[in-house]
């Protein structure tokens, strides 16, 4: 069986920093487990950083940097060339789609399914963190 290859949307990363109880935290805690691979680009990591600093202001910048450094250490790095724009209404969502296409990913993990309508034409599934964890056998 092939290991799933995903892109993790910014809202999942934000959710991880807000609570240790949910599926988002569990998903990110498994990024080095060999149960799935995931990809990022420089632009996507910068989006993670910007969104975290805006959305989770009570988290010290040093903690955000530790998380981002860890993500960059574990993830597959993709170069994107903006060839697919625009695919979606929100340019920040296009960042995620570009990484998925460049990394030959099969899934985007997000809470905002509707924001990614149209990605199916590239063969990319859209799943919530809980759905993805269920798929890889991490939720009973």
Task: Sum up the structure in keywords.
single chain, alpha/beta, 45% helix, 11% strand
Q: What is this structure's SSE topology?
A:
Layout: E1 5-8, H1 10-18, H2 23-29, E2 37-40, H3 42-55, H4 61-74, E3 76-77, H5 91-102, E4 107-109, E5 125-127, H6 129-135
Parallel strand pairs: 1-2, 1-4, 2-3, 4-5
Helix pairs in contact: 1-2, 1-3, 2-6, 3-4
Per DSSP E runs of 2 or more residues, the count of β-strands stands at: 5
Report the uncertain regions: none
Give the number of helices. Answer: 6
**Which sheet architecture does the biggest sheet show?**
5 strands, parallel
Strand order, biggest sheet? 3-2-1-4-5
- Output the radius of gyration: 14 Å
Structure description:
With 140 residues, the chain is an alpha/beta fold. It has a five-stranded parallel sheet, with helices on both faces. The radius of gyration is 14 Å and the shape is globular. The two termini are 20 Å apart.
Outline of the structure:
The chain is α/β, with parallel strands linked by helices and 140 residues long. Helix content is 45%, strand content 11%. The longest helix has 14 residues, at 42-55.
């Amino acid at each position: 069986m092939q290991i799933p290859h995903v892109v993790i949307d910014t809202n999942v990363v934000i959710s991880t920093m807000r609570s240790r109880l949910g599926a988002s935290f569990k998903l990110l805690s498994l990024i080095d487990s060999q149960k799935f691979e995931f990809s990022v680009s420089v632009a996507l990591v910068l989006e993670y950083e910007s969104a975290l600093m805006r959305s989770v202001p009570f988290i010290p910048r040093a903690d955000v940097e530790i998380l981002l450094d860890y993500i960059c250490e574990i993830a597959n790095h993709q170069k994107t060339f903006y060839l697919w724009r625009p695919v979606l209404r929100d340019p920040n969502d296009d960042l995620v789609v570009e990484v998925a296409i460049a990394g030959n990913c099969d899934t985007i993990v997000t809470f905002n399914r509707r924001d990614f309508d149209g990605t199916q034409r590239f063969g990319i599934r859209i799943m919530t963190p809980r759905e993805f964890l269920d798929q890889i056998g991490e939720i009973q």
